Amino acid sequence: MNQKERFVIASVLLIVAILVGFDLFTDLKEGVIVWHIFVEGSIAVVALFGVFYILRGSFDLKHRLEKEITDFSHYKKDAEAWKMESRKYVDGLSKAIDQQLTKWNLTVAEKEVAFLLLKGMSLKEIAEIRNTAEKTARVQSMAVYSKSGLGGRSELSAFFLEDLLVPLDGEITEANEIQNRQSK
User: In this structure, is residue 184 part of a structural domain?
Assistant: First the structure.
């Protein structure tokens, strides 16, 4: 129920309560039976309770919405700050990846495909983004793997991203032991 509907219902209930109250007042002057007064009084009380309940719900909803908006703006500011702070690192990583792709003698089209592969896009998505056939994207991705000497998408990703994840202390010694065995 939206705010306008809540206001209309609360207004109608308030009018009912006022009219019943006025009727109750005139009935008391005329000396109406007690149970009739009790029934009309109950109706007025229930109508006033309805007004209170609807208005309280509206105020609660308004305060929750304001809190959500405030929280969202804080999260948005945090996200923007993180984005600005990490931008230099992302730019540096992008440049380093581009330099490596240049070392592998990739064409401009193959570099684009390599970047899109690193972003996790499928060959179909790459073809759509680049306005080419899926077969073209497949051939260019195979050229990326061939020129780089890597076996596929996972090896391409691992080549650039492997050192970004900091291993836990126990994993560091295990990884060092594996490297020492491989180098022997």
Answer: yes
Domain count, the chain: 2
In this structure, what token pair is assigned to residue 14? 């308030």
Q: Tokens for 98, please give them.
A: 């581009």
Select from 54, 74, 94 the last residue of a domain.
74
Domain that holds residue 158: 104-184
Among residues 144, 131, 142, the alpha carbon closest in space to that of 103 is found at: 144
DSSP label of 150: -
114 and 106 Cβ atoms separated by less than 8 Å: yes
In the block, tokens 């994840």 appear at 165
Find where tokens 């109508």 sit. Answer: 47
Q: How many CB atoms lie within 10 A of CB 175?
A: 11
Compute the C-alpha angle 20/21/26, nearest 5°. Answer: 95
Distance CA 99, CA 45 (A): 78
* Region of 73 on the Ramachandran plot (φ > 0 left; ψ -120 to 50 alpha; else beta): alpha
> With a threshold of 0.90, does the pTM exceed it?
no
> pLDDT digit string (tens) for 132-164?
999 999 999 999 999 999 999 999 998 988 767
DSSP string, 104-149: TT--HHHHHHHHHHHTT--HHHHHHHHTS-HHHHHHHHHHHHHHHT
Judge residue 55's burial from the number of C-beta atoms within 10 Å of its C-beta, 0-12 exposed, 13-18 middle, 19 or more buried.
middle
pLDDT of res. 21? 86
